[in-house]
Structure formats: structure tokens, C-alpha cells
Design goal:
globular; signal (chains A, B); 17 helices; Rossmann fold; alpha/beta; Ser_carbopepase_S28_SKS (chains A, B); homodimer; 36% helix; Lysosomal Pro-X carboxypeptidase (chains A, B); nine-stranded mixed beta sheet; protease (chains A, B); Four Helix Bundle (Hemerythrin (Met), subunit A)
């Protein structure tokens, strides 16, 4: 996962150690929003409206009593369709501003009128505007230490109680359905697993719940699915492999470097000046392959960046030559890929690829540049690397090691007090489970072409105790959570149809079996 | 619950505010043990042997990363009967030295040979020798703040991993059955609820899991069941009510005070000197009623104190007169009760009832005088008080109020940094649930004559998804956990028979359904 190296570069670290941050959120949030109280937000084709509100007095630490500080957690809410004791659709926010998820989880908006549901998007602590220590939230280990998945789940538990007993009228018996994608999907599943009395069912989309040590996910699985996605879309594998060699070759001469600087429209401050600089370009491009595989939707979209429909197929048009091509031509294919991913609208004239000097880093755009890196240095230690051909078409950087990850973490967080003992790579699986022997009412949906699917829960039999595995055969990253679209594929339509049916089933069962008193 | 007032007196607090500490552990630990590594411990009739061991490097805080301190947790273990991948019987320790529970949970010792099980007793953090900050564990809110039920459960999770992967040979596929009584029973149930992948079933004996705000347990329920227990054993209710009046009347004169001091063999430092001192005597006696109801076993026992079989019945022999008796005779009945409870062996010559000046307070004997008080001031806020006749035969001190509890807590813990915001009385139910919609494989056993049974889980139908409710009709506090005895009642024999059957069933199902890889 070269994305990881990119993270480090973005954070001014030049080493090749690995982090496990989600590529998903290494990118600039492309969504325009107007963050103000009771704002009306418009999002391109969709027009979702919400009120921006706050849950006050949330304990910074739910599980101990050494720290009695509290903070306010942000959530977005729409009750236009809410009926008495109707369901609450709760998005369990992940690593980013909550507006991003509100605007890209059309499934909730589409289903709400059909179920008489309230729609709520809860922001994850330490992201967006939900900063427990304000501007100092990431300034000390003592502060950022409270950024953890269990604390976030407990925030959501408190929010559910508040919504049902105070915020909403006639909601004391409202069932809650959790929705989430990616890390947010993990949270929605874990919410049902740890708080089944508060959440009656969960849609956990593209949640790599098993991408941890102690489990059997191969460390090079991500890269492998990236390759699968691109080859499925018509890329000639060897052309991509050759292109890396071509870049390296061109970078070995002064004229070649000059060619690359011009070809890639690199700003002068991020010029390639010496042979080894080609690594920087390589990592930048690898990350594009990895990210594009995630957002390979069939219609134009702007989740991570503006892209045409089936962008991987478009990209493969640059890599499907059956002729032998020159080094320059190979490099041109790579430039075309980059221009497609970062400049589909054609507005950019130059690119800045050196995160040490470039201001437009993805982390900065996200708003919380140290959020996911912190999580990947504490409990979300996900083993990822590339083993090269035949597994994938990247350059080998396996194996993943804890030592390498620690080196990365110390470089970023050492100055604020990070030590080796803060990393607990076995905790997530020990805490949430390597299997879910009593869990019910969770849909784990995964896209066959989504690289994260390799760490998802799936089961050969379709259903175990209403734990449901849905594989969307032509699906990318949490495609099913998106709003319906005329170009939707049959497989995503089928996934959403099943999701709707299961939610209906869960709500019906809840109504039949719920204990009537004290329903929160 | 006058026990609560006693707690405060023990802690040099004279107010009448209430705490929710378990009477169970206000008493001196009567068990003799030799605490040393690999010690062999003998316990009267029973002869249980264990090795005293430690789990090292346990995080002080499992759920955040602000504090990377670790400590060592004590556990007792016996593997004499352990077979390859046999079950691990794990006692989830509660508020006291772990030896107390090892010696009084004969059920585990009795069943172990039949199942080829390892027997493990895990100490609860901040009790016994498991002090995360050594002698400073209770010195500051910053330290004792890490005394919480969720942190304790996570300790047990880490212990299970350690036992299965490091400590025990051939135990990677060992299922774990949790056992616990009282607060330990709550922990064993919550362990299955929160960590079903680590614990395959739980015996939660006399666990008042619902004795919290937001639930429907009446605040005077404890006192009511005490009364039920005593009246069932032949006490004449009016005689007890009259005795309180008699004590108050005697205390109203100098000669009466003198009489009481002599009658109760009070040490001079705890003499009753003025009329209002009778309250101190009353609270001391009320606590005896309340505690005796808990340990009303059919045979001589020494769990909280040495007692004859059916001690409540013996005590009722002092209160069953059908004649009108004098004030002195009423007082003599009360003295007989006290002498039975605290001096069954006849070795004591005097009594010290004033906790402000007496050294032999129950808390001091327990070793962690502030443990349960702390828990009752943070998350274990259990509403309890006495409403007087006809509910019970005590003097009314209802209603229970959070303000009263806070006053108590501030008096004890104010000087180490306790503030109002540290108390979170709604958290326990929000966290663990007001119902258990997905839980399986838990037996909730309760004694009909155990005052704590009023807060236990029960269900009219015998079984829901293998959540089993067993009521032991002549049972006191976690009677079923005790070792078998020739005088055992049919109802406890039946309870243990069912428990054995269910454990067998759970283990069989686990064997059939378990995912073979990675079983911890």
C-alpha cells in the first residue's frame, strides 16, 4: 500500500515505513458545503437538507472516572419524514467532517420517507467540528489519547439516548438502524455488537472488520484487489509494470527528469531533481491507482474527487496498448491517469506532488491531518503492503512489520508523547471479536472490486442468525450507501433491495418482541 | 438499607445519606489464607489448592491512549483436571480479595473434574493485591478513576487471551465459562454480553443487574425481601418493630443507656452516651438483619462470618414470643441477634459498634475500604432505602435521592478530587442494557429469600435464547455457587443440576459451531 508511504510524505516523513491509514481519506474532501447552524446544504445532483446540532456534556472518557471533562459532539439531523416512534437512521460517523458522509450516503435519504424515519449523522470525536479539546485536541497524547473507536461508540450511545428522550418527540420506542461505510461501517457493526439494546440493526458497508493482526487477511490483499479491478476493466498488466520501469529509467538522466517535470506539469517547488525523486512520483501515482479502485462508480461522481463514470475503465484506455511502446509513451499513460484523477474538470494547470513543500495535502484538506494516523498508531493497525507481481502491479514493499509501523508513529507523534506501549495492535480483535457468535441483524456488504473487501466479513451461506453477507460483484467502496442513480448496476440495486427488505424485517421483529417499557 | 448509613459511619461520616455499597462486603473477610506464590490454601471443610499468579502489563486504561501505564493483575489457578482444549472456568472477581471467592465458589471446584476444566479466579482491579498504583491506588481521583466495571471486564479479556495462548498448553480452542456471584455475577453476565467471542457461557448468580436508575426496581425492595426472609423463618414482625422502640426508649434515660452498654457488652470507647446514640446501635443491628438474610444457608458456614445452619431461623427464635415483653426483654432479643451473628463461636467478650473509633471496621478488614464506595459514587448507583412498615420492619429513611448520594460521595472522596460530574448514574444501564436482545448462554440464578434478588434478571418463561432464569426458592445470596453439602436443599441441588446441564449444552454447541481457526 503505497498510500501509506504517501501519508508519511504528507507528514514530512521521508522513510518508507508503512502506516495503515485508509486511502479513502487521504484525499481532499471534494464536497462543497456551507457549515453553519441550521444550514441548508446543496450537493450537486442531490439536495439534502439538515440542521446542524450538538450533543452537549459528552464525557471525554466514558469508561473511567479519572477525567471528568466533557465536550460537545456535532450531529446533523433531518426529521421531515419522521413519524411517531418511527425509526432513527443513524450514520455512525468516521474519519472526516460529517457533512462528507451526509452528502454521500444517499441510501439513508432515499429510504427515510419510506420508513417514516429521522435521519441523523453523528460526527466522530476528534474529526470535523467535534474536537474535545478544541484547537489543542491533537497537541498532546493526553488529549488525542481519547480518540478511540470505543469512546466514539459510547458517544453514539449517549446520542441515541438523547435523541429518544429529549431531542425527538414521540421517539422513546423508536428503533435505531445504524449505517456506516468503511471505518464507519466497522463502527455501525460494532455498535450493534456492543450495544444491541440501543441499535436494532446495522448496514455495515465495505467495513474491513477483520483487517487486523491475528486474522488471516493477507498483507498484500489490498494491492491484489486493485490489480483485479484494473484488469477487469481492460488494463494490460504488463503495460503498468513497464510504466514504472519507464519512469525510473527517465529519471536516471537529466534530460529525462526534465521531460518528466514538463510532462507531469509539476510546479517548480515539487520538481524531480535527482534520480531517486522518481520514488515520490511513483508513490503519488500508486495512490491514484489505489484510490481510483475505491471510487470506481458507474456514473460521474465526486466523492473523493470529480471523476467520470467507470473511471478505472477510462484509465485502462491509457494502458491497453498491444504494441511495444517507448519510455516516453509509458510515462504519458501515467500522466493521463493522474490528469484523469486530479483534473477531470480540466481546471488545473499544474500539479504539486511533493508533500513536504506542497500546501494542498490531502490531510490538510480533510481538516484533521493526524486523525487516522493516530488511530493507525493505536488500535487500528492494519497490515498492508505490496508484494509486487504476480500479486499486484506495484513495486514490492512487503513485509509489513510492527517495527516499521512504530517507526512511522514515533516520527509523527513522538514529539507529543507517543511511546511504543501506546500501540495495541491486538486490542481491536480481542475487543470486538474474531467472530460474532451472538450478533444478529447486521448486513456486511462488500464490493468485489473494492480493495477493502478483502478484510470484510463474509460467509458462504447467505445468512447466519440474520448476519447477512452481500457481495456487489461490480461494486467499489460502499457503493450501496450512495443515493440511487439511473446508471446504477443491477448488483447494487439488488444489494439495496435486500438492505431495504432486511431493515423492514428487523423493524417488524422489533415491534413484535420489544419490551414495552424503557425502550432506550 | 441501613447498611449504607453504616458505610458512612465506618468512613467517619455521620450524615444519614445513602450509599449503595453491597452489604455483602461490609464485613470482615473470615477466611484464613496464606498469600504466597504457589501457596496451598486450606479452608475449613474444603481444601482447595491453587497457584497464585500474575498477568503482567495490563493496560490501566483499555479504552483510550492517554495513559500508557500498566499494572499486574492477580489470578489464582488450578489445572489439576485440565484436559487438552478443555474448558476454562473463570471466576470474574468482584469487590474483595480474590481468595474469598476462590474459597466460597465450590461449584467451580466440584464441576472442574467432570469437565476436564482449568479453574481460574481473576481478581478485580483495585481489590486485593491487584492495585494498579500500589499504595497510591486510592490516593487521587486520577488513580482510582480507573476502577470501573468496563476496565475490569477488559482485564478479564486480556487474561483469557493470555491463558489460552501463553499460560496453558493446548488451550487455544478452550471454551471459557464465566462464573460470578453478586457484583461478580453482574460481571460474568456482562462478560458474555460484551465479549461473547471470548466467553461461551456464564453463570451469573444473584446478580442485581437491573438495580439501577431507569429501571423499575423499587428503592425499598431490599428491605422488603429481608422482611420476607425473616417472616418466612418464623419471626413475629411486630416483635422486631417493637424492639426498635424499646431501644430508643431505653436510650432516653441514663439508666437505660447504662443498661444497653452492659447488655451489648460495648467497649467503653463505643459506649452509648446520649439518647441519639441509639441510632448508631440501630444501624449496626439493621445491618445484621440485612446481612444475615444474605447468608442464610442451611448448614454452618463462614462466608461473611461464622454462623449456624439457617441462621435466620435461629435468630427468629429470639423474636417469636406471643407474649407482651418488656423493653429490656426486647433489647435482649436484639443482643441475642448480634451475638449470634458476630459471636457464634463464643470467643468475643466485647463489641465495638462505633465505626468512628473502632479499629475492626469491616472496610479495613476487607483491605480496600474505598473500593465499593467509589463504585457506588461513579457508575454503580443503586437506589436503596427503607420505607418502614408495611414494606419492611426497619425505620423509614426513604426516599433515595441522587443529591443524598452525592453528599455522601463528596464527603468521602471530595478531598481526593471528586466532583459531581464524576457520578454517571445512567451509564451502567445505557452501556450494558435494559434488556439483552442478542445475549445467549447466561444463567441468571436468584434466591427467593436473597434481598438482592429483587434487582435480578428473571423471565416468566424459563428460557429465551438460552437466557435462563432460575429461582432458588429457599435460597440466599449466591447459594448455588457454594460447594455441595449434605444439608443442601432440593432447590439448590436442582439449580446446580440445571447449571451443569446448561454448561454441558453450551460446550457441546460450541464444539459443533466454533470456527476452527483463531479461537481466542
Amino acid at each position: 500500500m503505497y498510500c501509506n508511504d504517501k501519508c508519511m510524505l504528507l507528514l514530512l516523513i521521508a522513510s518508507a515505513a508503512l502506516s495503515a491509514c485508509f486511502c479513502l481519506h487521504l484525499h481532499k474532501d471534494p464536497v462543497t458545503y456551507i457549515p453553519s447552524d441550521n444550514s441548508v446544504v446543496e450537493n450537486g445532483a442531490k439536495n439534502y437538507k439538515w440542521s446542524e446540532e450538538w450533543l452537549y456534556d459528552v464525557p471525554v472518557d466514558h469508561f473511567s472516572f479519572s477525567n471528568d471533562q466533557t465536550f460537545r459532539l456535532r450531529y446533523l439531523i433531518n426529521t421531515d419524514h419522521f413519524l411517531t416512534n418511527g425509526p432513527i437512521f443513524l450514520y455512525t460517523g468516521n474519519e472526516g467532517n460529517i457533512e462528507l458522509f451526509a452528502q454521500n450516503t444517499g441510501l439513508m435519504w432515499d429510504l427515510a420517507p419510506l420508513f417514516g424515519a429521522a435521519v441523523v449523522f453523528a460526527e466522530h470525536r476528534f474529526y470535523g467540528k467535534s474536537q474535545p479539546f478544541g484547537a489543542q485536541s491533537y497537541a498532546r497524547v493526553n488529549n488525542v489519547g481519547y480518540l478511540s473507536s470505543e469512546q466514539a461508540l459510547a458517544d453514539f450511545a449517549e446520542l441515541i439516548r438523547f435523541l429518544k428522550t429529549e431531542r425527538l418527540l414521540n421517539a422513546r420506542r423508536s428503533p435505531v438502524i445504524a449505517f456506516g461505510g468503511s471505518y464507519g461501517g466497522m463502527l455501525s457493526a460494532w455498535m450493534r455488537i456492543k450495544y444491541p439494546h440501543l441499535v436494532q440493526g446495522s448496514i455495515a458497508s465495505s467495513a474491513p472488520v477483520f483487517w487486523f493482526l491475528d486474522m488471516s487477511v493477507p498483507e498484500d490483499a489490498y494491492s491484489h484487489v486493485v490489480k483485479r479491478s484494473f484488469l477487469n476493466s481492460g488494463c494490460a498488466e504488463q503495460n503498468i509494470i513497464n510504466a514504472w520501469s519507464a519512469l525510473e529509467k527517465l529519471a536516471s538522466s537529466a534530460s529525462g527528469l526534465d521531460y518528466l517535470n514538463r510532462l507531469f506539469h509539476l510546479e517548480s517547488k515539487s520538481h524531480l531533481n535527482k534520480s531517486s525523486d522518481w520514488l515520490m512520483l511513483r508513490e503519488y501515482l500508486e495512490e491514484i491507482f489505489e484510490s481510483m479502485a475505491m471510487v470506481n462508480y458507474p456514473y460521474p461522481s465526486n466523492y473523493l474527487t470529480e471523476l467520470p463514470g467507470w473511471p478505472v475503465k477510462v484509465a485502462c484506455g491509457f494502458f491497453n496498448s498491444t504494441q511495444k511502446v517507448s519510455a516516453e509513451e509509458s510515462a504519458q499513460s501515467m500522466y493521463a491517469l493522474m490528469n484523469l484523477y486530479y483534473n477531470y474538470t480540466g481546471k488545473r494547470e499544474t500539479f504539486c506532488i511533493n508533500p513536504i513543500v506542497c500546501d494542498d495535502s490531502a490531510y490538510a484538506a480533510l481538516g484533521d491531518p493526524f486523525g487516522w494516523p493516530w488511530q493507525s498508531c493505536t488500535e487500528m493497525v492494519m497490515q498492508q503492503c505490496s508484494s509486487g507481481p504476480p500479486n499486484d502491479f506495484f513495486v514490492k514493499n512487503c513485509p509489513f512489520t510492527l517495527e516499521g509501523q512504530l517507526t512511522y508513529c514515533k516520527k509523527i507523534f513522538g514529539k507529543i508523547g507517543y511511546t511504543k506501549s501506546i500501540m495495541r495492535p491486538h486490542w481491536t480483535i480481542l475487543n470486538y471479536g474474531h467472530q460474532y457468535p451472538t450478533a444478529t441483524n447486521i448486513i456486511f456488504s462488500n464490493g468485489y472490486l473494492d480493495p477493502w473487501s478483502a478484510g470484510g466479513w463474509s460467509q458462504k451461506s447467505e445468512e447466519i442468525r440474520s448476519l447477512v453477507s452481500i457481495i456487489i460483484e461490480d461494486g467499489a467502496h460502499h457503493y450501496d450507501l450512495r443515493g440511487k442513480h439511473p446508471l446504477d448496476t443491477d448488483s447494487v440495486k439488488n444489494a439495496r433491495r435486500l438492505e431495504k427488505l432486511y431493515i423492514k424485517k428487523w423493524l417488524k421483529e422489533e415491534k413484535l418482541h420489544s419490551v414495552k417499557k424503557n425502550s432506550y
